[in-house]
Design brief:
By secondary structure, this protein is an alpha+beta fold. Helices cover about 20% and strands about 30% of the residues. The protein has 7 helices and 20 strands. The strands form 4 sheets. Strands 1, 2, 3, 4, 5, 6, 7, 8 and 9 form a 9-stranded antiparallel β-sheet that branches. A 4-stranded antiparallel β-sheet has the order 11-12-13-20. It has a 4-stranded antiparallel β-sheet with strand order 14-15-16-17, with no helix packed on it. The structure holds FE2/S2 (inorganic) cluster (FES).
Length: about 350
């Protein structure tokens, strides 16, 4: 028997009553919930996604991949015992397993890896359960292969969309769970529209509900639920003796990229500008826009807030344009090998702190 992985797509909804709890309890609950998940890091692969603002009936997804079913069970039991878990319901949960396709796709370079789920860094995940009609299974295998070839041909026209097909026969209500990764929802829409015209589509019995999910860090996902910020509980973790906190690797932050991380209780925006790493407080001083999502002018070393176009120097934190007048704190940055470390500033404005990429 080939070695397979078990996969679970667990969609959670938060009881709004949780948002009316005292802030200190919310903060403690997020810390407990997040650390419970982190505790399982070596036992399963887990990717958090947010659905706040996208669907009305669920708030987040935990995409879980494990070698054994028991790991998925143990994680859910642990989450059920947390304070936040008492306020979470599970309107959708899909269980599936990796396996080789029964069809031949000799030109598909990804075919050999289908037994192992390797999520990409794509911004979005599009998930839905899938059931074929019984008449599909009554067709000769060669007929089905011919239709699957057309299906694959259409998929190859959208190379930036990556498909993870997992199997649920006998394990759960659907036959497959399909999860597409991509950075552009418009491309995914076009792909699905085109697949509707394929011959195999006539043999689809059910392919809803469909979930559009946004990839985010565990703490961002918890923040998206509302209540006290997750950054604060994360800050309670012991810091290194030198005050620096490892927050990213250079592999995660290539030139031209930015990221939001947490250190000392604050959300911090990291930028790699032509190989130099800069770190400033993530919140715009005008109205708390997220600067890690801003536009960077590499020549001027300035980030523009995505909300109302305030501009901040990445070197000094000074507001240099737009509606903001108060500078943002600048963090000291250092590199240890491939690891980016930052430490909070003692005051608001300071000297340039960019660290050259080693
Ligand atoms: S929130 Fe940044 S410019 Fe308004």
């Amino acid at each position: 028997m080939e070695r397979r992985q078990v996969v679970r797509y667990a969609f959670y909804t938060l009881d709004p009553a949780w948002r009316r709890l005292p802030a200190d309890r919310q903060a403690a609950a997020k810390l407990e919930f997040g650390e419970t998940i982190e505790h399982f890091a070596g036992k399963l692969l887990l990717r958090p996604y947010g659905l706040v603002g996208i669907r009305g009936d669920c708030d987040c997804l935990l995409w879980q991949v494990a070698e054994h079913l028991e790991a998925l069970v143990d994680l859910q039991i642990a989450l059920n015992h947390t304070d936040l878990g008492a306020y979470l319901s599970l309107p959708y949960s899909y269980l599936a397993m990796t396996r080789r396709s029964i069809y031949e796709f000799p030109e598909d370079p990804h075919a050999p890896s289908r037994l192992v789920i390797r999520p990409s860094e794509a911004r979005y995940l599009f998930v839905y359960p899938f059931v074929k009609t019984r008449s599909w299974y009554a067709l000769p295998k060669a007929e089905r292969q011919r239709m699957m070839d057309e299906h694959v041909r259409i998929g190859r026209k959208y190379p930036s969309i990556r498909l993870n097909t997992t199997y649920s026969y006998g394990l759960d209500d659907q036959e497959f769970v399909v999860a597409f990764e991509g950075d552009n929802p418009a491309e995914f829409l076009d792909l699905v529209m085109e697949l509707r015209e394929s011959e195999a589509s006539g043999y689809t019995l059910r392919d809803t509900p469909t979930f559009t999910c946004v990839q985010m860090s565990l703490w961002d996902m918890l923040d998206a639920l509302g209540g006290a910020g997750a950054a604060e509980p994360v800050a309670r973790r012991p810091a290194r003796a030198d005050g620096f906190t490892p927050v990213a690797t250079l592999a995660e932050l290539p030139p031209g990229k930015s990221a939001r991380v947490y250190a000392a209780g604050e959300a911090v925006a990291l930028f790699n500008v032509n190989g130099t790493i800069y770190a400033i407080a993530n919140r715009c001083t005008h109205a708390r826009g997220s600067l890690s999502e801003g536009t960077v002018d590499a020549a001027a070393c300035v980030v523009t807030c995505p909300w109302h176009d305030a501009k901040f120097s990445l070197e000094t934190g000074q507001a240099v344009g737009g509606p903001a007048t108060i500078p943002v704190p600048v963090y000291r940055v250092k590199l240890e090998g491939d690891t980016v470390l930052i430490t909070p500033p003692p005051a608001v404005a300071r000297e340039p702190t960019g660290a050259p990429r080693s």
